[in-house]
Structure formats: C-alpha cells, structure tokens
C-alpha cells in the first residue's frame, strides 16, 4: 500500500499553510481532508499555538480536534467553537484566561460549563466521541449534565482518570447508557458494578484493572453485544489473575470476537477453555504470556510466533496508539527479517505498517528497528515489490536519513547499501534531486558517514548527471559540499584508503565539470594540493581521476587563476609522474599540459567546448596507435627529408590528434604553417570543429597504419617539452 492521493494532497496543503503560502479562503476543504491537514499541522508545529490558530482561520472545516496537552484558554475556546465537531479530546484544562469565572472553583473543573463554551449547538448535537485525559477533579454530577448536553455521544474514554470518592461508576453508566465504546483503562475501579446499564456496548477497554475476586466481574456478562474486550496488563505489572477470575464466573460473552490477554495469566489450559465456551472468538492477543510463541489451529493468536502474527499485532497496537508495544513489535519484525530472509509475508503491507508505526512511536530505539526493517526488505525482499512500491520504499528511507547520525556505523552502511540496491533496480523514475540532496546533507551533517563513503559517493557519481540543471548547479555551488568531499579525499589519503579516494575524486570530477564556482570552491578549501598528492600515489584510478579534476579546473578557470594553481613546482610534479605512467594516464596528462600551455600562449577566458570530454574519451583508448602510427610514418617513409618545413602532413596531424585540442602549442611555426596551407579549414581554430576533425582523422590513421610497440611516457614528454621527435633506431 501507498498513501492515497488525498493523503499526499493533505500533507502538501499542511506544508503550504505552515509556511504561510496558502491563502485560499473562497473554497473551504471538506471535513476529512481538513482533519488530515490539521493533524499534519500539529506535527509540524509541535502542537497548537496562537500562530497556528491564525494560519488555519477560515481555511479548514474540522470535525475532529485533539486538545491533549494543550492549555485551554480563551483563544483556544474561540477556535474550537467555530467548528461542528464529531470528536473532541481534552487534556489538561489549566485555564488562566477561562471563558467564564465559574468554570473553576478551587481547582475543581466545571466540565459541563467548559463543554458549553467549547462546543456550539451543532457540535453539542453531533459529537460522537469524547475523550477526557486529565486527573483534575470535576464538579459533582458532571456526567449527568454532560449526558444531557451530548445526547448522541457513542464513545467515551476516561482512561487513566481516577474516580474521586463522590463519583460513582454506576452513575456514569446510567447517564451514558447509549455508549457503544468505553475505555476505563488505568482507572482505580475495583469492580464493574453498574456496567450492565451499558446494554448497547460493543467495545470495552479495561486494561490494567485489578479485581479482588470474580464477583467484581459478574455484571460484565450482561453485555450481550460486546464484541471486543481488552483485559490486558502492561508488561511491568505482574501478579494478575484476571483470566482465571473471568473463567471462574462460569459465563460467556456470546458475541465476543476479539480478546486482548497480553500480560495476563492465560495459558494453554485457559485458552482451550475459552475456545470451548466462546464460539465466535476469532483473535486473542497473547504477548508477554506463556503463549507468546504459541500457534493454535482454528484461531489467530496475535503474538511473536511468526512475522505475519507480529505484523497483525503491530496493526492492533497502532490502532490503539500504544507506543511501547509498537516498539516491541518493530524489534521482533526486525529480528525476523534479519534471521530468516525467506520468510513469507505481505511485503507491501509490511512496508506501509512499519512506516506508519514509526510515525506514531518516535523513540530512537523504535525508529532504529523500523529503519532496520526497511533496509532488510530493500536488500532481501525487493523482488516481491512493484515499481511504485519500490519508489515509495526508497522515499520512506530517504525521509529517515536525518536520524542515521544516532545509530551505529553498521546501520549507516546497511542503509546506503539498501538505497543503492533499490536504485539499481531501475524499476521507475526516481526523484534524483531528492536523493542527491539527501546524500550530500548526510555527508555534511552525520558523524557516522565513514562506513558509507564508498556507497554515498557512488550514488552521487551516478545520479548527479541525472539531476535537474537547477539542482545540479545549486549543489555544486554550495561550498560546504565541496569542502566535505575534499575532506573525504584527504581522509582517504591519510588512511591510505584507495576506495575512499576514488569515490571522492569521482564526485569532485563531476563538481569541477559543472561550473566555475565548484572549481573555485575546490581551490579555496585546499583541494589543489590534495589533488597533486593523489598523483604521487601508485594507484592508476586515483591518478587518472585527479588529472581529470585538474583538467576540468583548467578548462573552466581563467588563465590568471590557472597560473596561481599550476606553479612551476606543480608542473614539474606532473612531468615527473608522466615518466611513470602507462599510455592511458599519459594521454590524460598530455591533455592537461596541452591545455595549460595553450592558455599561456594567449587563451584567457574559460573554454566552452562541448566536445572536450568527448574527444578525450574517444582518443584515450587509441592513444597507443596514434603515437606508434606517428613513429612508423616519420621514421620509415620520410627519413630522407631534412628540411623541417617539409614535415609531412600525415604524421603532423597524427601528433595533433595526440595533443588533442591545441596543436600550435607542441609544434614549430613552420610545422603549423605547413599544415595550415594544406588543410586551411581545419585550422580556423574553432575549438569544436577542430577537435571533431582531429578525432576523425586519428580514427582514419588507426585503420590505415597497424599498431607497433607502445612508446614510453618519456618519449611523450619529449614531444611536449622539446617540440620535436626523439631520435630512435630503425629497429625501434
């Protein structure tokens, strides 16, 4: 499952309202959408505030409002009174600016007067659910007054509220005889006397209640329509005998379908007894009991016996908003996924439930287990997902990226490995902008990025070219991003970790290829010195990538800026390393040196040439054949020529192809003149057309003259330094 269109729309509207960008008042949203928007706004604003009240004024049509944890004052009352409500949750009612002076009398709340002020006539008539979550003392006979005010009330929750000595549970039941739902969990009730008045009741929650004997439960069995019963205990509350007392009554609830017995004294014997007497019983919750891992034919036990029963338990606890059990279920699901990769379950529903659970239970431990669940699914169960489900799973994971800093490096590494796995499926068009921005934010903010450097940088290397142009420019312009990538490169050099260096250089190569500011950022954070250190490492890929980054910088910057970078010392480093390079790396160095020398001889502005990278890639694999073709032609067919002005056109053009882009750097004026006369169109010094010509001609030479032994890096260096060919023997 994925979020409905209404859910997605509601989230966006909430964000617009939160940011002050939603000013539509001519059209008011429907109640269902309004409730979703308001719920999301409460998350964004961390509760109700005066600013939020201003933002939603005249824009929403609410039917549900949750005031738990909100200090109800005059402004809150005025806001609530505008809507026709079906559900209201009240928390602490500390009224410093009460709507009237008689609501409070010596710290005693006049609940009836409070509701009269909060609810307009439509709300009083339509309210179906009321939840009161406070232990404040109310004026006597408050239930009788409220029952008259709210004639259609069907659901009442007073869980964790203590009954005072002048309050009678029996009177409560008499006054709310039409209730279908009642929650009295965590109260101080010692018996259920009077509950038989609720003869329409279908759902009863009485968790954490303790009774002295079975007589205290007898009236429970007068609820002939009861379908759901929760008699569970929290896991830290022991010594309960509630199931034994229930069975001792010797009576049944004929329509009971669901029974929550978690944390109780239920055992196999009691279970068999229940099944023999309750024909309609379909589900029993048995967490933290002797039946926690049990399986029983004919009934579904919600426990940790299988991943499916655990997921169903998770759904049950999410519906009740019980955070602690939600966390326990996430942990058990995580363990199942980690231990048994072949476990059969509904993967799509599991993803949806886990994401929803993480939105309810936000503790670090629960989020940690939730992330583990999603990563395990991404790594081992992705084949069961459809394209849109893969997209949604990736989106879920990215949304939790900010929390990775709280977890171990191992979790961080598994997280990014799972991201790569989903991307590599190529099942749909992902949001590449969001992915890359999330990765960069992670690298700059997280303290546990070290174990994920290779994964995160590889994501950037692959996906940055797929980003929108606007986002691509934005991320490369950010100095913080360049700083972090250079720091990763430096760290890789210090630790002699080649994969880190290669990963960081791959990203820097993209950054430096995109715009001037990225190049200047790399320079300003000390990237040049680090790049030259990379050239001294005996790792081919590192050296090649470092040269490419330096070349990109030389392309995009002006000559005055280049001169500050490529000092004599740095140039000597390049030339010294050239003698140790193989043909491929020599090719890249020639490209860089040719570029620098050409700029020194008059080129001043940045070079805007679409074919620079293309021609380099086209010629690098053919580099050996270009040079050997040059040698073969020059030292066999044309050895008798002594006049330097008569150097043949073919070998000269072959050398031009080797030097790639700027031939006038490497050869004498007479050589250039000779070629210009012969091929004038090729030397209009239009960068694009000449490179295309150069590569095309080199390809022709490659087919015409077969390969001969490879030249050394030194011979290439001599071509660049001396503008002439080295003397070699005929056998060479």
From TrEMBL:
SUPFAM superfamilies tied to this protein: ARM repeat (SSF48371), RNI-like (SSF52047)
Superkingdom: Eukaryota
Coiled-coil segments: none
Recorded GO CC terms: Cul2-RING ubiquitin ligase complex
InterPro entries: ARM-like, ARM-type_fold, LRR_dom_sf, Zyg-11_UBL_adapter
Name recorded for this polypeptide: Leucine-rich repeat-containing protein
Species of the source: Caenorhabditis elegans
